Amino acid sequence: MAAVSVQFAPAEDVMAPTASFPPAPQHIVDECHEAIMTAAVKAPTESLEPVTSSVHRKRNVFDMFRLDGRVAVITGGARGLGYSMAEGLCAAGLSGIAILDLQTDLGESACKQLHSEYGVSARFYRLDVRDEVAVQDAMDSVVRDLGKIDILILSAGVADLVHAEDYSPAKFRRVIDINLNGSFVCAQAAGKHMIAAGRGGSIIFIGSMSGSIVNWPNPQSAYNASKAGVIHLMKSLSAEWAQHRIRCNSISPGYMDTPLNTTYEEAYFHEWKSRTPMGRLGHPEELAGCALWLASDASSFCTGSDILIDGGYTVL
Fold first, then answer.
1. 125 is annotated as an active-site residue
2. Cβ atoms < 10 Å from Cβ of 201
3. Considering 223, 235, 238, 250, which one is annotated as catalytic?
4. Cα 10 to the chain's mean position, in Å?
5. pLDDT digits over 12-25, tens only?
6. Does the annotation mark 118 as catalytic?
7. 208 part of the active site
8. Which is the catalytic residue, given 84, 95, 155, 208?
9. Which of 44, 196, 236, 265 has the smallest number of Cβ neighbours within 10 A?
10. pLDDT tens track for 124-143
């Protein structure tokens, strides 16, 4: 067997040694040659893709917003902010969406509309987010019917305008139960499925600027307290579930032109607009872009963040 000779030219800056070294024993040379030939035979013949850092890999930024093949669940998604965010996600290629809401007629109509416009598989599940058994059953049903849960948007919520001295404990508790406890129960149920599947996910809480400031002159202590709790709950879960690749963030809207807000006196509308630097209420569709960003890979390093979309209200 012929020996393999490997030579290294001396570096230009280094003087080559003048001493000569005896050749290696033939049996060592033979063993090295045999090992090299064996490795060459076992090496795969197909071309291998070079290993490159993800930092340097080119990717179309718009592709990062795509949601192809993913399944989203939206509580309170039958109308208003929830439905607008549902439309935004469906437009990005969702394969399936589940609308969880108390209002059956609106929920079924929303699913029909989403399927008709975007071709997405859409399912409605009637749900009271305060009922933890029903919530778990609903999440189990989504996984059974649509295959998985990749995205959860927690949009179910209520608000009251009641002066603190007149607030009955039962009415105060109702706001906390729906807005805060309901968000936890739904996040927990969906989070269990995400953890078991091992693929990670994105949970988007709907907070409010009221979780950071007090909207004067609105008497809404229960709502403010509940949304402050939602934001801190989100931060807590973002820390706990990061190890499972589950990202938790929140969107905190300012005054929005929604069916919920239209139930209040017109005088409030004028006050809200006058205190908002942009001079108007927000449109529900103006949250869709942020929801899409948080749901998609475009925000893959974002977790634990509360994003204010309030027309500048909180900067004053």
1. no
2. 25
3. 223
4. 57
5. 443 444 444 456 56
6. no
7. yes
8. 208
9. 44
10. 999 999 999 999 999 999 99
